[in-house]
Amino acid sequence: MIYCVQALQLRTHHRSIRLRNIILLFLCLISLCTVGCDENTDMQLATEAGLDAVRAVTLTDKAVQRMALRSSAYADSKRRVASPTSKYAQRLQRLVGDHYQEGDLTFNYKVYLAQEVNAFAMADGTIRVYSGLMDMFTDDELRFVIGHEMGHVTQKHIHKKLRLAYASSAVRKAVAANKDTTVGEIARSGLGEFVENLMQAQFSQLEEKEADDYSLAFMKKNGYAPQAAVTALKKLASLRDGKNTLLGGLAEQYLSSHPIPGKRAERLQMQLEGKAVSIAEQKEGLWAKTKGAVVFVVNLLVGLLRWLANLL
Fold first, then answer.
1. What DSSP letter does each residue of 78-129 carry, written as one string?
2. Contact by Cβ (8 Å): 121, 150
3. Which of these, 247, 209, 254, lies nearest to 229 by C-alpha position?
4. Bridging pattern class, strands 105-106 and 119-121
5. What is the dihedral of CA 191, 196, 202, 203, to 10 degrees?
6. Residue 223: left if φ>0, alpha if ψ -120 to 50, beta else—which one?
7. How many CB atoms lie within 10 A of CB 5?
8. Nearest to 71 by CA among 161, 154, 132, 149
9. Strand partners, 110
10. What is the sign, positive or negative, of the torsion defined by CA atoms of 143, 232, 131, 202?
11. pLDDT tens across 50-103, in order?
12. What is the pTM for the complete model shown?
């Protein structure tokens, strides 16, 4: 049975690869047909964009992990990373405790010494917190932010951001044929632009809610003060509303990628008061209702068929 499942998975994987290669071959043929024709420059550019779009969509999880690892290394190289003996690094170490593993994910944490009020995560489990954010937040508020970033990783929101950044950056100009092109392309063409696009890509409102829910559950599970989730978001909302113009400018990047902190604070407060539920609970409730409706309709149809059978 195990061999059958493995064989089925292998066939599915091979079909996916064949489909991708067919699309790439088709686009390459179009590109070859237009080479050397100045009047068809737009067509060539469109073909290149099509190739990049296909590659972005078909990136495997392993490719995403490799790209994330290289992107985080690049980001670290361009910023001032706090040394292990720094008060910021020691505080972060104390706050994260033993929260280094979540399923098959391994998290790694560092502090950037910068006044910006910011934090971000990468798909490989990288989480970076800026000292400006640490100066502004209490311990439990920081734990909420860390849990929030963990949520983006575990829910694979970062995978989606990475694919979008890949599709929109200068990386799309370098198309190669071998299976490990993703990392090589980034290295050769616009890694800086790619990383900036990745860090600035905005999460959707649903993704923000899911990450908030993950972090709130994380806070409760580990005995941290859940109310800190609300106060942290309210502080961010005050920056967005211009109540602190100095810090507001420093928090611009974080607020652009993590929208509507005020409404998110209200939503979490409702959950803490028992007046609202998480996205996961909403989905479970919706499924329960849908399942009940389906069972009702099926039973109704069965009864109708039996009634018709009796008539005949």
1. TS-BPPTTSHHHHHHHHHHTTTTEETTEE-EEEEE-SS---EEE-TTSEEEE
2. yes
3. 209
4. unpaired
5. 60
6. left
7. 9
8. 161
9. 128
10. positive
11. 555 555 556 788 888 888 898 899 999 999 999 999 999 999 999 999 999 988
12. 0.69
pLDDT 10s digits, 124-133: 999 999 999 9
Check if the beta carbon of residue 208 is closer than 8 Å to that of residue 259.
Answer: yes
Angle subtended at Cα 253 by Cα 247 and Cα 255, rounded to the nearest 5 degrees: 75
What CA–CA distance (Å, rounded) separates 74 from 79? 9
| Residue 127, strand partner residues | 109, 121
Taking residues 151-158, report their average pLDDT: 92
Please give the Cα distance from 21 to 27 (Å, whole number): 10
Give the separation between CA 239 and CA 234, rounded to whole angstroms.
9
pLDDT in tens, 3-55: 444 444 555 555 555 555 555 544 444 444 444 434 444 444 445 545 555 55
What tokens appear for 289 in the block? 């209702």
CA-CA distance, 30 to 98, in Å (whole number)? 53
DSSP sequence for 209-255 = HHHHHHHHHHHHHTT--THHHHHHHHHHHHHHTTSSHHHHHHTHHHH
**Active-site option among 141, 149, 207, 210:** 149
39 catalytic residue (yes or no): no
User: 147 — phi, psi (to 5°)?
Assistant: -60, -35
Rounded to an integer, what distance in angstroms lies between the CA atom of residue 12 and that of residue 56? 19
Could you give the CA distance from residue 119 to residue 153 in angstroms, rounded to a whole number?
Answer: 13
Token match 């990628």: residue? 257
Residue 46 token pair? 């469109």
Which distant-in-sequence residues (6+ apart) come within 8 Å of 252 by Cβ?
Answer: none
The pLDDT of residue 160 is 84
Calpha distance 197→169 (Å, rounded): 7
Instruction: Supply angle C-alpha 123, 124, 127, rounded to 5.
Output: 80
